[in-house]
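Project standup — Tuesday

K.O.: blocked on the structure for the chain from last sprint. Re-posting the sequence here as requested.
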Amino acid sequence: VKGEVKEIFPKIFCVTVDDNYDRAMLFCRYQEFYESPTKKFRGKYFSWAEYMRHYKDFWKKDTFTYPIDWSGYNIPSKSLEKSVDAFRAESEYDLIMFDIWVHCFELTSEIYNEHDFYLIGASSKDLRTMDHEIAHGLYFTNKDYRLKMNVLLVSIPKKTMDKIDKKLIKMGYVNDRKILDDEAQAFLSTGLYNGLQIKEIKKYEKSFIKIFKEFTK
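H.V.: unblocked you, prediction finished:
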């Protein structure tokens, strides 16, 4: 697996892997451990064989298409810590992810005297996805950013938020208020797609983009 790990904002570490397959296979089980819409996998140990068959059947695919369907990844450190313990050394990817966790944990402890950090994964060639994952990282690590985004989220009428929630759940995100809010602010601040780019939602985009740019300039 060719790539690098770099702290791009305080306590936000980015794993840059340009090969779509390797990036997906590196993050897949750890991402699904964190926020799979299926309770069987979220927060629990599961094998590659279990998940690959489930994914194919759940999305009515002919084969396992996860590396094609997903391009960016984001995991808070507490979930990552639990998942590296659950999946320890079962594959080359697990060994790499364990090394990444150790590196980020030690660096965060040394610099900030605490253990919480956020890990994101994207391709250096896909800047929109990179920004989307950075928005997740900021929402977790930066209280000012999270507060400002939450103020904007609560200003959106319930009818519109319900539409956003339904579209996110349809995409494959878990029906959890915290995760849906996090995804909503990330899409609104870095680019709407997958059915979210309708006029009713798009008119709120400008305010979110402005805040994102303020924190990333």
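K.O.: great, moving the ticket to review. Residues 92-112 form the longest helix (21 residues). The mean pLDDT is 96.
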